[in-house]
Amino acid sequence: MRVRKRFGQHFLEPVWAAKLVDLIAPRSEQTFLEIGPGTGALTRPLARSGARILAVEIDRDLAARLAAELPPNVTVLTGDFLEADLLPILLGLLPQQSARQAAADGQHDPASAAPAVRVVGNLPYNVSSPILFRLLALQKERGLFTDATLMVQREVADRIAARAGSREFGPLAIFTQLDAEVTRLLALPPGAFRPVPKVRSAVVRLRFRPQEVAIPDPDLFSAMVRRLFMGRRKTVLNAVRPFAAGLGASPEAGLAIAGIAVKRRPETLQLSELARLAAFFASARRRSVL
Prior knowledge:
With 290 residues, the protein is an alpha/beta fold. It contains twelve helices and nine strands.
């Protein structure tokens, strides 16, 4: 099997694929989106459950081989997950009534296991964060996903699952945990892949749910969080000061209203505190344009 380094390809060994499929526990009535099926190590056992699968593969040669070998309950899409138009195909795989509802209102009941989409993926190390952000954006847009089981570099898993107060806590954890509960499922050694990578991997599961805190202005919230963590070694006051200046707002007033001590560090902030601070800045921006 020819490995293309530009795609960050490391193919999962069958024994580890079997362990992961056991954790996923697919059922015939379910629909899956698989990101980066590669040689089909996960795709084949998932397909044997009878589940409907959309497998998105960027490598044209691998995609052609999968399309020729896999059963008809698997649809192979050749393309980049970061750019591909997935929704029409996913909606076509859902039961007809559920697809009409999803297309009409963009909402989905996560408690309804049959019509919703589950996500699996052995993510390339070099683009795992952009893929996760695209997945979160799709979830915000249409609410189709119930859960995502993702294999990533161990350090990325640490950042996704990090809690406030830890060194790893930052934008990746914040943006993920706004919409999902994160659980670490499995650690994998380098020998679980071919070719053997130089890093260790881990599997995380995201269980999507309604946002834990209300974010009235998502774009402003995102910009504020990224600005804060550019200065993660600074106090919250100093880290947020440039952002506040850009809005003509007082950082001291914002922190006071949000109930945040000025000498705290950004990685200590809870989601609820970040949401209150963002609400202050959103209000300040509205006042500035009136």
